[in-house]
Amino acid sequence: MTLSNSFTLLKQDGEARLGSLVTPHGVVRTPAFMPVGTAGAMKGIHWRDIRDAGADIVLGNTYHLMLRPGAERIARLGGLQKFTGWNGPMLTDSGGFQVMSLAQLRKVSEQGVTFKSHIDGAVLELSPERAIEVQRLFGSDIAMQLDECVRLPASRDDIERAMRLSIRWAERSRRAFEGAPDGHMLFGIVQGGDVPALRRDSAQALVDIGFHGYAIGGLAVGEPQEVMLAMIGEAAPLLPQDRPRYLMGVGTPDDMLEAVARGIDMFDCVLPTRNGRHGHAFTRRGVINLRNARHADDPRPLDEESSWPGARDYSRAYLHHLIKSGEALGAMLLSEINIAYFQHLMSGIREAVGGGTFASFRERTRAGWAAGDLPPR
Amino acid sequence: MTLSNSFTLLKQDGEARLGSLVTPHGVVRTPAFMPVGTAGAMKGIHWRDIRDAGADIVLGNTYHLMLRPGAERIARLGGLQKFTGWNGPMLTDSGGFQVMSLAQLRKVSEQGVTFKSHIDGAVLELSPERAIEVQRLFGSDIAMQLDECVRLPASRDDIERAMRLSIRWAERSRRAFEGAPDGHMLFGIVQGGDVPALRRDSAQALVDIGFHGYAIGGLAVGEPQEVMLAMIGEAAPLLPQDRPRYLMGVGTPDDMLEAVARGIDMFDCVLPTRNGRHGHAFTRRGVINLRNARHADDPRPLDEESSWPGARDYSRAYLHHLIKSGEALGAMLLSEINIAYFQHLMSGIREAVGGGTFASFRERTRAGWAAGDLPPR
I want to staple B132 with a disulfide (CB 3.0 to 4.6 A). Which of A56, A259, B176, B209 is the partner? Predict the structure, then answer.
């Protein structure tokens, strides 16, 4: 069976790609950064500000949403977009990653994974078929297959066992997705840990099954950046040129810049909001740690040339005060400032790739970050 | 010495008043509700939304701000308006109330109050003169005198001692305010607990000293509503018609409606934000408790006719989900929805007083609240 294709590769500059992905809820310009709205909300940011910051698409976490408020309830309320009021494209993960990191008493079998809800202790099962069913109930524009993600470091045997299981789950996910409404997409997930041969096997097996797009999973789990980039280098060349490629859970601005240079189109990460809550601001001049006392009397904004009002209109002294005082507004402002910077970076990348100047953009951008309080990664 | 007057009484309807107060940072339409930005920020609300909701003026807490970031620092950074980015009128309290409720080891003497900071344990003194100095460093449009507020119930002797001390502090505050820049105002505070004769003595003594405006303090501290209204009834008739009257720390929509009916012009309260964080929505149809499970599947917005997007664009089911999940967005949305409702109520009051229809507005509004989950007070 052939799969529809809503992705258009508009331009290539080295391995870096400029593209456009049409979803039932709108167009996604790639490379794209997807802010993470865990339980149907961005932490500390209004939906309108996510859109104003330039995000085309956001990510929702199936694990959280299936536990509360529940997939069937969301379907009754008209789907995730209507429920949340975010009326744009949405990608949902399969729930597998959070089952592994948050749920108790999880047990993986051929059939799927059973676990206890971290909210009320209820015993639940997530199979490849149920993961797809749940995401179809949500009305997700892009659904992800259920996979098993192994924490690194791990033995080759453990990595291979999980990867092979994920391939079998990929086949079942693909079958379960048959009959999904037009335009809705399913992505397979390349696993294989830090083992190049397994990454290649995984990528090839997924391409043989056939998906609307391909994710690279199981990275950004503590391994050095060079390992992450090497694994992208193994998998990406095997993936079809005309399908979108999504690097899951990544990452820092530097990670994203390097991944784009290796042919990645989509990203998601909680970094801009989580680190924002801790007082870290991402800017053109690197990461500024607003907890630092040296900002207490500094009347300058984070970036007087920023197009984002929050980065331009508030002094570092005020942001420092808000963070030190635990005022919710501090977390709110830094979260949106960071999301806006991540979107600004993507917009710069897209412009550079479109103009064939990605290499110089990459050097200039990395040089700018050197002035920050904290290393870029 | 005569005091300048920037208040204009535009219209009276029974005892209810429509007015306009010109401050150095803009005009305040009265009756006015002042959202409380404790430590230089609204809890969970962007400044732009406070303004969009219709607030002309906000309140800052001197106790919090003098401890952190400090009055001298705020002055160096250009004053409270420039520091916070709220470029409109601001009233600051004297710090006395929070010293009583938050600080440790406080000791009241004729000179002032000594206390230990709840942040770092530093021993500090707040005198009537220092309270004025701090508020002048802030650049507050309206400063409040230092007073001693007694918790009710209390003995008549305790209430009278604190009231007499507050009068002596009022005189010292007035002297300390001499030479303040044009247009900046100082309000005296009527005390006297629940003792009618003491309320009258306090009001008369303050009028003899002379202030730009008059507050009624020491109410909304747990006493029944009828006691609060009776005390307003003692004090208000003694206050000059041509000066604004501010009922401190009040209150519920019903309290405000009744206080306006007795000649009050200004209010402040943490209720809309604090109760918003707890899942309570203030609406035309009363208080809706969104923690209640009966809202879990309700696709209706809080108020489909509201002029505030948050009250109109999100379902009760979604707000219920956000509050149950502890998502910051739930507190953010309900806080701004409540602030917007309080401002909407004030706007309705002003329109009714202006049109001479306050009595019927009051009845209609109170009848509307009856449909809520919780009593209006």
Answer: B176
Chain B residue with Cα closest to A80: B318
Name all contacts of A175-178 with Cβ < 8 Å and 24+ positions apart.
A176/A128, A176/A129, A176/A132, A176/A133, A177/A132, A177/A136, A177/A143, A178/A1
Check pLDDT > 70 for residue A233: yes
CATH of the domain at A117: 3.20.20.105
Distance from CA of A75 to the nearest CA of B (A): 11
Residues A285 and A258 in one domain: no
Nearest CB to A313: which of B39, B85, B328?
A: B85
- B93-107, B225-239, B257-271: range with lowest mean pLDDT: B93-107
**Which pLDDT band, with edges at 50, 70 and 90, does B374 fall under?**
confident
Is 60 exceeded by the pLDDT of residue A367? yes
Does A18 have pLDDT greater than 70? yes
Q: Which of A49, A93, A194, A255 is catalytic?
A: A93
Q: pLDDT by residue (tens digit) across B303-316?
A: 999 999 999 999 99
Confidence of residue B46 (pLDDT cuts 50, 70, 90): very high
Residues A141, A19, single domain; the answer is: yes
> Does a structural domain hold residue A18?
yes
Is the domain of B217 the same as that of B338?
A: no
**A45·B297 Cβ contact <8 A:** no
Instruction: State pTM to two decimals.
Output: 0.97
B118 in a domain, yes or no? no
CA B208 remoteness from chain centre: 25
One domain for residues B331 and B243: no
Structural domain containing residue B202 = 7-94+131-268
Residue A123 lies in a domain: yes
Residues of chain A neighbouring B66 (CB-CB closer than 8 A): none
Give the residue numbers in A contacting B (CB under 8 Å), as ranges.
39-46, 64, 68-69, 73, 76-78, 83-85, 296-297, 299, 313-315, 317-318, 321-322, 324-325, 327-332
- Integer distance in angstroms from the first to the last C-alpha of chain B? 42
Q: Are residues B230 and B311 in the same domain?
A: no
* Shortest distance, CA B176 to any CA of chain A (angstroms): 28
Domain boundary among B239, B268, B297: B268
What is the C-alpha to C-alpha distance for residues B296 and B315, in angstroms, rounded to an integer? 9
Question: Does ipTM surpass 0.85 in this model?
Answer: yes
Residues A126 and A169 sit within 8 Å (Cβ to Cβ): no
What digits encode the pLDDT tens for the residues B253-262? 999 999 999 9
What residue in B sits closest to A333 (Cα-Cα)?
A: B46
pLDDT in tens, A51-87: 999 999 999 999 999 999 999 999 999 999 999 999 9
CA distance A194 to chain B (A): 35
Whether residues A77 and B42 touch (CB distance < 8 A) is answered with no
Percent of chain B scored above 70 by pLDDT?
A: 99
B268 is catalytic: yes
How many domains does chain B divide into? 2
Query: B252 with B283, same domain?
Result: no
Cα dihedral B192, B196, B202, B207 sign: positive
CB contact under 8 A, A40 and B318: yes
Q: Which residue has the tokens 């956001």?
A: A58
Residue B119 lies in a domain: no
User: In chain B, what residues touch A327 (CB-CB under 8 Å)?
Assistant: 39-41, 43
Answer yes or no: A93 catalytic: yes
B39: closest CA of chain A, how far (Å): 8
Residues A104 and A133 grouped into a single domain: yes
Q: Of A269, A291, A307, which residue is a domain's last?
A: A269
Reference B166, options B128, B194, B133; nearest CA is: B128
Same domain, B229 and B308: no
Buried/exposed code over A255-289 (b: 16+ C-beta within 10 A; e: otherwise): bbbbbbbbbbbbbbbbbbbebbbebbbbbbebbbb
User: Reduced to 3 states, what is the DSSP secondary structure of residue A219?
Assistant: coil
